[in-house]
Write a structure and sequence with these properties.
Helix content: 40-55%
Number of domains: 3
Strand content: 15-25%
Radius of gyration: 34 Å
Number of helices: 10
Shape: elongated
Oligomer: single chain
Strand order of the largest sheet: 2-1-5-4-3
CATH superfamily of the largest domain: Histidine kinase-like ATPase, C-terminal domain
Distance between the termini: 51 Å
Order of helices and strands: HEEHHHEEEHHHHEHEEHEE
CATH topology of the largest domain: Heat Shock Protein 90
CATH architecture of the largest domain: 2-Layer Sandwich
Length: about 350
């Protein structure tokens, strides 16, 4: 059985995933493969005999015939043999991006143009998602810097200012000729004791900030160990009763996902210690059937959504953003007087 070149060409056109449209030198559609019909939403019968500029948007729609005539007269190529990204009009009226390559075919004294369209919708959407992700990452970084700057100013700044005042007061007392040596010694002891306490507070706060910037144990020991260390430290420093049931069979997270999950737990515990006035905290996780769930519950004072302004609201927003960066969903449920629950959910196929 023999197969003609024309039959083979038609077969190849129909199995191509890219759209193929053939027009004559007047810009009238002569043929289209199945992929082209699917791309633009028309049947082959609806396309054949119609001007190809029906699939274009302005200004190319109005100028297309001039493009063809200019090429036929001067040989000036605008797209033939070059290719470019163009908007294509669907039957619905919506535009979608496509990469269009055009070739010339001469047959029996007639000139035809063959256009091959490659749908760029998914690529364009992926680029947009990357741009949005980059923008959101920058926003998160700036918001975290704002939170950190606030902590440095409010906690470290106030402690250092107190130390400065105490040292200045100590110098004043030393220069006070009305005090006896014994009285000066007693005053200095009081001031320096308070100053030492303040210095210890500064050191502790600096250590906490350092741990927030670079979680200890996470890189070398893994997420499970780092979380257990974090929970143990919370229990010791806050004095709040802590119950934990951690399923350590975590999903196969990469390092970025792990640190974002760690930060979510860390921020939840920080909020509890600072604002919740809780007596009990329960931290549990479960990994079953490809779904991982982590819950952090407290029996504290809770809050109303209207209260989430300023630093507290920003911290909760960052938790949700971190969940998104980890490919997870973070839900925060709270009622005034009934505590707060933070739930992180991660589906294995996300």
């Amino acid at each position: 059985m023999s197969i003609t070149l024309q039959t083979l060409s038609a077969c190849l056109a129909d199995i191509m995933v890219d759209g193929v449209i053939v027009i004559n030198q007047n810009g009238i559609i002569q043929d289209a493969n199945e992929a082209a019909c699917k791309l633009v939403g028309y049947t082959k019968e609806e396309l054949i005999g119609e001007p190809v500029n029906m699939l274009m948007s302005s200004p190319h729609k109005e100028k297309h015939d001039d493009y063809i005539q200019r090429y036929l007269s001067t040989g000036e190529k605008r797209i033939i043999g070059i290719g470019r990204e163009v908007p294509v009009r669907h039957k619905s009226g919506n535009l979608f991006p496509a990469y269009l390559s055009v070739g010339e075919l001469k047959q029996e004294g007639e000139i035809y143009f063959i256009g091959i369209m490659h749908d760029l919708t998914q690529i364009t959407e992926a680029k947009q998602r990357i741009r949005e992700l980059s923008h959101r990452i920058i926003e998160i970084q700036e918001e975290e810097r704002s939170l950190l700057a606030g902590e440095l100013h409010d906690d470290l700044g106030s402690s250092l200012f107190l130390m400065k005042m105490l040292l200045q007061q100590s110098l004043s007392e030393l220069e006070n000729s009305d005090l006896t040596a014994s009285e000066k010694e007693q005053k200095l002891h009081e001031y320096l004791s308070t100053c030492l306490t303040s210095a210890e507070s500064v050191i502790q706060k600096a250590r906490e900030i350092s741990h927030r910037l670079a979680p200890p144990g996470l890189k070398d020991l893994g997420l499970a160990t780092a979380l257990n260390q974090l929970l143990e430290k919370f229990k010791q420093s806050s004095g709040i009763s802590l119950h934990r049931e951690i399923d350590e069979s975590f999903p196969p997270w990469n390092s970025l996902q792990q640190i974002n999950v760690y930060r979510i737990v860390q921020e939840s515990l920080n909020n509890i210690a600072k604002h919740a006035k809780a007596k009990q905290v329960r931290v549990t996780s479960e990994h079953k059937n490809g779904k991982f769930t982590l819950k952090i519950q407290d029996d504290g004072v809770g809050f109303h959504p209207d209260q989430l302004k300023g630093k507290s609201g920003l911290g909760l927003k960052l938790m949700k953003e971190r969940g998104w960066l980890a490919g997870a969903q973070v839900l925060i449920d709270s009622k005034k007087g009934k505590g707060t629950t933070v739930v992180l959910t991660y589906e294995q196929n996300t």
